[in-house]
Amino acid sequence: MSFESELSKGNFLIPKCTECKKIVWPPMEFCDHCMGKTSLKGGDFEGKIMEFSRQNDNYFCIVEIEDSFRIMAKMIQKPHIEQVVTVSKCGISKGNYFFEVI
Description:
- This protein is mostly beta strands.
- The protein folds into two domains: 1-43, no CATH class; 44-102, CATH 2.40.50.140.
- Helix content is 6%, strand content 48%.
- The protein contains one helix and seven strands, in the order αβββββββ.
- A hairpin with a 2-residue loop joins strand 3 (46-55) and strand 4 (58-65).
- The chain is globular.
- It starts with a helix and ends with a strand.
C-alpha cells in the first residue's frame, strides 16, 4: 500500500514513522528524521486555512494539516483564515495530486 496508490483511489492517508511517530511529508517510505519505515495512517484529519486566493468562482487554500504540513486545496465556499476544514475529495489527475476541503 503506497500513498499514491491510495490517493488515486480517493483515500487521504498520512505517512507516519513506525519508530519515532513523526508525520512524514512529503510522503516517503522511510522517515527523514530517524530512517524508520513509515506506515499510512487514516482518519478524518483536520486542517486550518492559513491563506487563500480566488480565481473566478474557485477558492484555493493553503491548509495546514495536523499542525505538521501544508497542502494546497480547492474550496467551493468562501474560506476564512484559521477556518477548520477536512479533506472531502482527493486524487491524482494528469499526474498531479489534488485536494478539496470543506
